[in-house]
Each structure stands twice: as structure tokens, then as C-alpha cells.
Write a structure and sequence with these properties.
Layout (H helix, E strand, L loop, with lengths): L9 H25 L4 H28 L5 H30 L3 H11 L1 H10 L5 H9 L3 H24 L7 H8 L1
């Protein structure tokens, strides 16, 4: 006879699942920041993002195997909370990076990009009513706190689609496979 296991609190499980995902996202962020100087790091950044989604999917699948009675909405909620916690870990790494490692590098890269003629033309086509010099002054005056707040908001917005992509293919375990594995 199959006994049902007590389902642990979502936040507890999500905390453990978020650790590897958050570490991959943090590494992806760092690879992106240094990817302007080293193009291979930029490619690694993209690969880490894709692998993190697959890792979350595998974690959710294993969780559903352990607790087959949970609904798909529970899996989606677990996935979303995991992504929010992973984003929180990433926010901490981003804050540390901008506080201690960046040293104004982002500002100089953005300033150089905004000075290029191609960027100016593209900006004028996309937003003809905006003054690029004013935008550049605003970007150059952003503090570490402002940058991290923007990235935190971005991470929160990104949590829902990523959690949905990871949770969508998670299905209930097939009873035949579970019975074969138990014997």
C-alpha cells in the first residue's frame, strides 16, 4: 500500500531549489558584465540562463515524483517562489558587484555606447521626442542603489515567465512507472 508523504512548506523547498538557480543566475550576470571584454563569457552567460531553466524543471519533476499528490498549480507556485528567491540571491550578488567590483565600469561603457553615432541614430528613430543628452545625464547620475533597484524590479518581472517555462512541462508521474520503480 502506498503511503502519502506530508508535503513540506513551499518556502522551505523553494529555498533549497533556489540556491543552485540563484548561483547560476549570479554567474550569468557576472559573465554578462565581463562579456563586453571577453565574448566567450557572454556566450557562457546565455548558456547558464538556459541551463538554469532546465535545472529548475528537473528539480520540479523530482519534487513531483516525491509528492505525486500535489497539483500542477502547487508546482507553478513552487517554481515562482523559487525564482523569486533565486532573484533575491542574484540581487545580493549584483549589489556586491556594483558596490565593490564595478568601479564605474558600467557607466563608462554606457557613456561610450551613447556617444557612438549608430546608437544616437537608433535612439532618435525609436524615441524621437527624447533628448539623448538628458538620458545620458540621468544614466550617468544613477547610484549603486538606483541600479540595483532597477535590476531587482527586472528580476521580479522575469520570475513569472521563467517559472512558467520551467513548470509547464512538469506532469504527474505515471503510476506504472512509479510501481515499477518501487518493486
Amino acid at each position: 500500500m502506498l503511503e502519502t508523504k506530508e508535503i513540506p512548506p513551499t518556502i522551505e523547498v523553494a529555498g533549497w531549489m533556489a540556491l543552485p538557480i540563484g548561483l547560476m543566475w549570479s554567474a550569468s550576470f557576472l559573465c554578462t558584465m565581463y562579456g563586453t571584454s571577453y565574448p566567450m563569457l557572454s556566450m557562457l552567460s546565455t548558456a547558464l540562463g538556459i541551463v538554469s531553466i532546465y535545472t529548475l524543471y528537473k528539480q520540479l519533476t523530482n519534487y513531483r515524483r516525491l509528492y505525486p499528490s500535489v497539483s500542477w498549480l502547487h508546482i507553478l507556485r513552487l517554481s515562482f517562489v523559487t525564482c523569486l528567491l533565486a532573484g533575491l540571491l542574484t540581487d545580493a550578488v549584483q549589489y556586491a558587484y556594483f558596490l565593490w567590483l564595478d568601479g564605474g565600469r558600467l557607466h563608462s561603457l554606457l557613456g561610450t555606447a551613447m556617444q557612438s553615432e549608430g546608437y544616437r541614430e537608433l535612439w532618435q528613430k525609436m524615441m524621437p521626442e527624447a533628448n539623448l543628452d538628458d538620458v545620458q545625464k540621468i544614466v550617468q547620475s544613477m547610484t549603486v542603489k538606483d541600479i540595483v533597484l532597477q535590476l531587482t524590479f527586472y528580476n521580479i518581472l522575469l520570475a513569472l515567465p521563467v517559472s512558467l517555462i520551467a513548470a509547464l512541462p512538469v506532469r504527474s508521474p505515471q503510476k506504472g512507472k512509479d510501481l515499477n520503480n518501487k518493486s
